[in-house]
Write a structure and sequence with these properties.
Elements lengths: L10 H11 L2 H10 L1 H12 L2 H18 L8 H19 L9 H4 L5 H23 L2 H12 L4 H8 L3 H25 L1
């Protein structure tokens, strides 16, 4: 299966296909789409790349085992909450964070206001994801490493073989281009 064959298919359609035949291929496509988002969420909370990558794998397993139990309408928001809750549980287990984590959070939001909030956040995340895909490869790499993986300029130079000025330039130009692309997408909405 080539992921580009399914790039044009919306999340809702992939979810419908999964609910219709319970074929995990559809789920695999969805999870692949949001791997970077999940890694970013995990890095934000866990602040450790190895733990974050492990968390993404644990979230994948949880999604595979749990999705059939819920009628999920907005996969991105739902999987984001799964990842966030997983990370918070890990932190709580380490004694770094205490909070009640409620199963209801993982289900589809109940009231209209909360649902609209999820829809807006989902649209914004979707637009951001599409905007990042439109950047040139150098900007994509630097933006992802800097903002999602929280790497320093020096770490990025070591990972990419760009010099420090190139890294700064790719991040600055990528940020500017993202803003322009997001504004264009907002006008179209």
């Amino acid at each position: 299966m080539n992921k580009n064959d399914y790039k044009h298919i919306e999340d809702t359609e992939l979810l419908s296909r999964f609910y219709a035949d319970h074929n995990n291929e559809w789920l695999g496509i969805l999870l692949e789409r949001y791997t970077m988002l999940l890694l970013g969420v995990s890095m934000k909370y866990l602040k450790n790349e190895e733990e974050a990558r492990d968390a993404v794998q644990q979230v994948f397993l949880k999604v595979i085992n749990e999705l059939h139990k819920y009628k999920v309408e907005y996969f991105r928001s739902w999987v984001y909450m799964i990842a966030k809750n997983h990370c918070l549980m890990k932190l709580r287990d380490k004694g770094k964070y205490t909070a009640e984590i409620n199963e209801r959070i993982m289900a589809t939001p109940a009231d209209a206001e909360e649902k609209n909030s999820f829809i807006e956040k989902d649209k914004a995340l979707d637009n951001l994801s599409r905007a990042i895909e439109q950047l040139n490869k150098e900007q994509q790499v630097c933006i992802t490493l800097f903002y999602l993986q929280k790497k320093s300029y020096q770490e990025i130079t070591g990972l990419t073989n760009f010099d420090l000025m190139q890294v700064k330039s790719h991040i600055q130009n990528g940020k500017r281009n993202l803003k322009i692309l997001m504004e264009k997408m907002a006008v179209k909405s």
